[in-house]
User: What shape does this take?
Amino acid sequence: MNLRKPLILTVVASALVGSLVMNGFSATAASVPGVSSTEIVLGMQLPQTGGASPGYNKIDDAARAYFDYVNSKGGVNGRSIKLVAKDDTYKAGVTITTARELINNDKIFAFFGSVGTQTHLSVVKDINRRGIPDILVNSGYSGFYTDPKKYPNSFGGLGTYTVEAKILGKYLKEKYADKKIGILYQSDDFGRNALAGLTAAGLKFEAKKTAASFVSGTHGSIGLGTQIGQLKANGVEVVIIAAVSSATAVAYATAAALAYKPTKWAVMSVGADSTTFQTILGARGTPLATSAALLAGTISASHIPAAGDADDEFVKAFKKINTDFNKGPDKTWDFNVLHGMNIAYIATSALMGTGKDLTRAKLVSYMEKNGAKLSNAAFSPLGYSASTHEAFTGFWLGEYDASLLLKPLDGKRVVYTTDSGSGLVTVSNYQRPAIAADALPKVA
Amino acid sequence: MKNVNLKKLIATLGATALISTGLVVAVAAPAQASTPVCVEDAKTGVITCDGALSNGAKYRTMVPSNYGGTFFFWQHGVRPSYAYPGYVAPTGVEQMSPTSVNHKVSTVKPMLQLGYGIAAYDCSSNGLHGWNTADCVEMLNELVTITKKRISITKTVVYGGSMAGAILTPYIEKYPTGADAVGVLAGVSPSIANTLKSGCDFLYIFSVFFDPTIKGCTVMGTKGVPGHMAVLGDFAKVGALLTKWSVDYGSSPIAYPAPLAAAGIPQRSALLLAGLIAGIPTKSGHMDGISTNATLIPEGSINSTVAILENAQDFLGTAYFGGQGVAEVVGAGFYDNTKTNFSALLADEDLGRFTVGLSGDDAVNAMLATLAAYPRVEGVPASVAKLAALDKSKFDTTKPVVLLSNEADRLVLSGNQVHYVNKAKAVYEARLAAWEKRLADAKDQPEITFLLKNKPVWNTVSMYAVTPDTYTKFTATGAPDLTAPVAISGVGHESFTKEQLMTWVRVLASSAKTGKVPSQTVLNTILPKVPYLNTDPDYQPAELKYQD
Assistant: This one.
């Protein structure tokens, strides 16, 4: 019995299979949602209005400004980048709807820079089930990133709250060993993540005494006043805040109203932007000088330069682009604008690196394999790999001076690095690559 | 015109049929089924025939004068066998085609106007209903068979709502030529065991936190009226709690068990926890899960708590009456939660989103710890095994299947449709992979030609009616207005707009005609024209908590 397949049939079969594969490939390539020969459509969800919006509502305009700048230079592999932003008002129920709109109506290629932990939690599972890239998420909740099998398409856009809290906690524990340290945190995964990081750093908190949680963002900040009173009543001398900007600002104002003056405030970076802080309190009738006095002396952290660091080359480049391209209602330069531009810079790098034959799977694969090499304004490398999708792996600590510039502690910027697990906090020796003269990423 | 139509109709009825306006005529039928009695409506020309299947269950067919050969066979949902306040056990064909309670819609007239023949029957076995799905499969087959002998049918559609999902899926698998298309409306994806487990979990949590005398699913299983009355008695206890909460919004602290009572956690938080663990929708007829009010509903998760309260009564109807119906089939003791991890059933996204309604981390931890430590329900192994095997389906039909559910169905959770799609897709993908391998391995031209002509196709359409973004109304006192009209779409059970229902019907008819569901391109032109009908082929509003 001749088991050999007749050559002619093999050729026919191969040709047919090949034809199918080719047709299938062509059909797939032609039907990648959000990608045409001239455009790539990205979608972002964020609070553009509502109680939690101040500060964060500038991120989309800043990112779009950078993309417009890239488009003015020819785009990415011949395609311009279009960013569609939806206002979810920081309400998870709305986030579900806006995600559906972005997918079905706007036909986005990928989610980019979506803001908020509890809001993103409401959609992250579905986004990943659909195989849609979910890049540069503006949440430091480690649960999104540390298990890529669970959320294979989600990549961080912030260092995790755990990493930041471990670094901040280590410093505070050593510096204020003789003080009673307490925490005011959001009762969500942001707050819980921060609490876990601080605890890992050796700080101990006692529930309903030195640890006070509240609910932030959706309808004012529920329970915040009571919790500030609790910290005061328990003699907390160093208060760590893990909350969004609006809640942070209200916490300071509430403390002032209660004549509560801790020795030191320390605020997680996403809630500590000085411009936003002053804007929020200004809307409540607090004079600029008063709000400046409240925030001055506060310790915070950052993964990128201080927005007020006029000598930093990324700050200089992005600031100019902001001036020239930002069409948002408020393009006042601050941390949120700098950060928005930086994640747009990283997204542009990733799209460039993925190449002209752009698919969702290829972008995710590129991010996982090459993302850690994508330089940007941060002073630490991105942590992307096959085993984690955490973004910035390091932070430097600073203190707001009287002009509300975040200045490195002890006069010298030291970048610390650690992980979201049990790793130690160490000093980073990473050297940030320079930005190109044209402020465009250079990706091989 | 009248004569022409009549002639056409007579032609469809076969040689033995004689019809005249207003005249009752006997029509030949299989020996065991009774002879249907037919009447023609003088005004509309619709011929209505009433008959009985071989077991005595009643059926009805309606054929319009412009009948075109496509016939729809309606399978109704679950019907408790015994009366209870507000419910009289049906005895006949009360529903001929899809209807909508919320919208007071009947599709009989528009379906007849489109020239479709329609049929329905009362799925009763020995005069009783309940979870008699296996009997329904055979009765539906009998109805289709005898109707085909009596009427010329070119395309057959079997379709139905709710429990019908657990009948139509096994039906088309057992009788592959028994229909050209299958439609499931707000239907159970076999097996009901998945949803029932969640219903029983819900009741179990009620017994832990609210009233230890509540028996939940352990009360079910006694056959006949005594069993029905026992279930009603237990339901009344839960109903009393729901009534109380509808007044005070569950603000009183949890009373049980004693160690937890001291924590001062409001009952509404335990209700919300129970609802989230069971997978009850966090939107309801009046509550959108989003809208807030400065006083009583200060935050979205409180809105959702009221939604779960509003949905709970119907969901408990599923648990109690569906459960009792199932228990009569599989036996008492079908529920076993000795290995249930309630913490794992609380999804991360729900814990994050509903923190306020759950009264914060400490309260959640305390409630979950209580559930973990509380004595569990040990089932009867034989009953548990029978439940697991009930209505078992392979999800492997190649016939077109068209599904429609409300995203916030409070009775048959929309996760049932998700479950169906995922199961069917797994079969399709395995089939496709096998086909691809066969093609790659093909040795001769005829085989290649054959394979290329027989490539597996994804032959399911999954449509959802979605809600408006926001729709909660508040009274002058700041309370949610639960007397306002319910949301226009996406809520309730088997409640759809007329346009949504008729779109489902048209897609079914088209699918039956071609043997394939419409392409996504075609759907993209049809569906956006129907308000609140989702256009996303990959949309999945929620998953069932159990996925067997």
